[in-house]
Amino acid sequence: MIRAKVLDGGFSGQLSRHVGAKFDDDPLWTARFLQTNPSAVYNTHLNYLRAGAEIIETNTYQASVSGLMKHLNISMDESLTLLAKAVELAKQAVAAYMKEKTTEDEQNAEKPLVAGSCGPYGACLHDKSEYTGAYGKSVSRQELMNWHRPRIRALLDAGVDLLALETIPCVKEADALVDLLREFPQARAWLSFSCRDDRHIADGSDFREVAVRCYRALPEQIVAVGINCVPPNYVKSLLQEINKDSDTQGFIPLVVYPNRGGSYSETDEWIPVPDNQRINLPVLEWLDLGVRYIGGCCKVFAEDIRAIRSLVDRYRLTEQQH
Prior knowledge:
322 residues; two-stranded antiparallel ribbon; 10 strands; 44% helix
């Protein structure tokens, strides 16, 4: 059985505590700070490591090669160098964190891993289509592969431990990424989807069917399938059927990192959960469903990851006792 690992939280929210600026309207989102404020990126990684994250993601969710070239007015080689820098900043944070360990048990603990964050094609469009998947109707599978390939190659060449193929909103892009992974047979990745409700991914396809099919197509490379940036109340319904028949069909490791949650008012106005309001995630229940990678997405901060780590540690202790 794969031991559950704790991921980091939402990068933008934690980063904003260091830069003190709003950047949600920036077409590069947090990736711009790779060039303008790399120390803030480094410190954000370190926040999550100190909170107990065992896997941190690079600050590359919205950092496509073409997007960096366009919005920073730099060359392709400079864009690829900036992607490598994102990996190096994460690795430097891991190295600094390991040096902070003082006890023998801490020093013997597993070194945190670095996952290369690969957001969907829709993120580069900067029109929120990563939450609809509408572009799946007009962009070909080959075009999607061609768009993802340079970043994936750059992250792997820079030495990430695995890839986070995340917030995928449409079937065509999921299939394209599975095909693309085959070009990098040594790569390992999780594949997580953007979902519009507690049953369907963003383009309306059945989540369970798509997730199971993708995993079974490439189990030697896909370490987990699951969901990210969904409200916490969707998680159980989305995941609970996947490992129902695991005794006969094989266990599928799951990944989940929800956002902070929120709701729409009667006037269709989005009401977020306040940043300072504690979120109580049913972590133990999710682990029982087969979740083996767990963290947070938008507006989930370092203190929230610390709470998740505490619950995961409790779960591990219970497993050892049995």
